[in-house]
Design goal:
Order of helices and strands: EHEHEHHEHHHEHEHHHEEE
Bound molecules: pantoate
CATH class of the largest domain: Alpha Beta
CATH superfamily of the largest domain: HUPs
Largest sheet: 6 strands, parallel
Number of strands: 9
CATH topology of the largest domain: Rossmann fold
Strand order of the largest sheet: 1-4-3-2-5-6
Distance between the termini: 52 Å
Mean pLDDT: 97
Radius of gyration: 20 Å
């Protein structure tokens, strides 16, 4: 496994691989790897010759310095996982390598509508940070395929839009959310949960499922009351709700009874931990 920290070394390596006509795959991460990442690595092997995993805690996508500073750092454990999964190249740049003049005045990529709604409304600037680092990694690594989890659904749609509208010759492959037996989605942020919160957290996915079942059962006609009751139930159990609503799964426009494919997006706080989750569903005629 080749661990690369510098852009000029990465560039030479990528040029060499391109000369050999190798198919390159990229899994961008912020480290603190979990089962969701491992499943992405396993999936990627079906598509590519060379797997590059990047580990970079991107300061540009955090709303505040504290959140950035306390993001879990588990590099030696991550490297063991990457080695076990036969990853070819790990790219671990320093912040100064990626943003030599700082990130505040850095050129950025922004998807105008999608990055401002829903999670973008509660976390202004977050998606600009994500799309900018992803654009940079795509330019540096020039992958043929890049792999993302569906847990960060809005992020996935935004990245797909960047690829399409900025003409990156990259295919984006997504993987459904990987869950613990309790239904809780794997996430690097689960590390912040204390024992009591860990017991409570699966209620989020349970509530998403009940809400969707009730919406389908009433053919979407009582959606507002159903969502309100679900939110009340989550609040009663100690969750603080930022987003818990249904959207058009393709456009992320607000729910309309005419939508065929919908998605319930949830972003909630349990103590000091932000949990996000989602589920798609089809409304019967
Ligand atoms: O989902 C993440 O871990 C990050 O947002 C990503 C895609 C690696 C960009 O920093």
């Amino acid at each position: 496994m080749n661990i690369i920290k510098k852009i000029n070394i990465l560039y030479k390596e990528i040029q060499l691989l391109k000369k050999k006509q190798k198919i390159i795959g990229l899994i961008p991460t912020m480290g603190n790897l979990h089962e969701g990442h491992i499943q992405l690595m396993l999936l990627s092997k079906k598509y590519i010759d060379i797997l590059v995993v990047s580990i970079f805690i991107n300061p540009m996508q955090f709303e505040n310095l504290l959140d950035f500073k306390k993001y879990p750092k588990t590099l030696s454990k991550d490297l063991k996982i990457l080695k076990k999964e036969n990853v070819d190249i790990v790219f671990i740049p320093k912040i100064s390598e990626i943003y030599p003049n700082g990130f505040k005045k850095h050129t950025y990529i922004q998807v105008p509508k999608l990055s401002k709604i829903i999670e973008g409304q509660s976390r202004p600037g977050h998606f600009i940070g994500v799309t900018t680092i992803i654009g940079k990694l795509f330019n540096l690594i020039q992958p043929n395929f890049s792999f993302f989890g569906e847990k960060d659904y809005q992020q996935l749609l935004i990245i797909k839009t960047v690829v399409k509208e900025l003409n990156y010759p990259i295919k984006i492959i997504s993987l459904p959310t990987i869950r613990l037996k309790t239904g809780l989605a794997f996430s690097s942020r689960n590390k912040y949960l204390n024992n009591l919160e860990l017991k409570k957290a699966p209620l989020l996915y349970k509530t998403i499922n009940t809400t969707i079942n009730n919406i389908i059962h009433t053919k979407g006609k009582k959606i507002n009351t159903i969502i309100l009751n679900s939110k009340k139930n989550l609040i009663k159990n100690g969750f603080l709700i930022d987003i818990f609503n249904v959207y058009n799964a393709k456009t992320l426009d607000n729910f309309s009874i005419k939508n065929k494919i919908n998605i319930l997006l949830a972003s909630v706080w349990l103590g000091k931990t932000r949990l996000i989750d989602n589920k798609k569903f089809i409304l019967p005629n």
